[in-house]
From TrEMBL:
This is Phospholipid/cholesterol/gamma-HCH transport system ATP-binding protein. Keywords: ATP-binding, Nucleotide-binding, Transport. Residues 11-248 form the ABC transporter domain. GO terms for molecular function: ATP binding. InterPro entries: AAA+_ATPase, ABC_transporter-like_ATP-bd, ABC_transporter-like_CS, P-loop_NTPase. It comes from the Bacteria. It comes from Azospirillum picis.
């Protein structure tokens, strides 16, 4: 008999809804991410990609629906259980979100020292090793984030995201603000780090070059629902007019952009 756990998705969302006042942002999200899979979520600005990630992390409570991680329902967890769950996650935020008051290595080691109460010397050793994994030399460890270029800051953010060797990593717009070559370097590092860790990855991005490089599978969100999922190699012949328009960046098509300020 096969073990049912083998087929268990790492993350499974079913009927997830979230609205702010009258504004319905998530309208019944159904999505599964397999263990060790790299899923890229694409979709226009303001379609709810970040809200979806925040719901998975428990930073926002969905109004309805189920979110399972490793087969465990997470929407009703108590604080302590949620803290335990959060140890499974690493996150690379849009804009890297580093603390300028801390040195680079202290940023990387932040979760190890604060979350796991690891001694500073040991955490520093790990931080320097993780900086090495993203191509930064030990002398960078002593600098302040303000002294680094945008690409280097992203590398530091990536080193921080992997420092704790998380099972799941979220990447929120990892290439925003980078030139195309540095974006490609970051994409390659993401692929390498995720592979080395054997982690499950969920990336949200508008950058199709990044999606093509990072994704095993792509999901498109539109009007609060996942309207298409498919293998990364299928995005150019998805058979879905919304995906086609987005992937090729056409102004004309079924997706109507809000051009006036709200
Ligand atoms: N805490 C909040 N309170 C009220 N509205 C919110 C809140 N968080 C998000 N929203 C709204 O939800 C909608 C979706 O936001 P979200 O940040 O998820 O979009 P996104 O798809 O990640 O966009 P982008 O690609 O531009 O980052 C937006 O209209 C936003 O204003």
């Amino acid at each position: 008999m096969t073990d049912p756990k083998i087929a268990l998705p790492k993350i499974a969302l079913k009927g997830v809804r979230k609205q702010f006042g009258p504004k319905k942002v998530l309208n019944g999200i159904d999505l599964e991410v397999g263990k060790g899979e790299s899923l890229v979520v694409i979709g226009g600005s303001g379609t709810g990609k970040s809200v979806m990630l925040k719901c998975i992390l428990g930073l926002l409570a969905p109004d309805a629906g189920s979110i399972m991680v490793d087969g465990v329902e997470t929407t009703k967890l108590r604080t302590r259980e949620r803290e335990k769950l959060l140890h499974k996650f690493g996150m690379l935020f849009q804009g890297a979100a580093l603390f300028d008051s801390l040195k680079v290595w202290e940023n990387v080691a932040f979760g190890l020292i604060q979350g796991e109460h690891m001694p500073r010397a040991q955490a520093k050793e790990i931080a320097i090793a993780k900086l090495g994994a993203v191509g930064l030399s030990p002398d960078v460890a002593e600098l302040s984030p303000a002294e680094l270029s945008g690409g280097m800051q992203k590398r530091v953010g990536l080193a921080r995201a992997i420092a704790d060797e998380p099972e799941i990593i979220f990447f929120d717009e990892p290439t925003t603000g980078l030139d195309p070559i540095m974006a490609d370097v970051i994409n390659e590092l993401i692929v390498q780090c995720v592979k080395d860790l054997g982690a499950t990855a969920v990336t949200i991005t508008h950058d199709m070059a990044s999606a093509r490089k990072i994704a095993d599978r792509v999901a498109m969100i539109y009007e609060g629902r996942i309207i298409w999922t498919g293998h990364a190699g299928d995005i150019d012949h998805s058979g879905n007019a919304h995906v086609d328009q987005f992937v090729h960046g056409r102004a004309e098509g079924p997706i109507k952009m809000q051009v006036r300020a709200l």
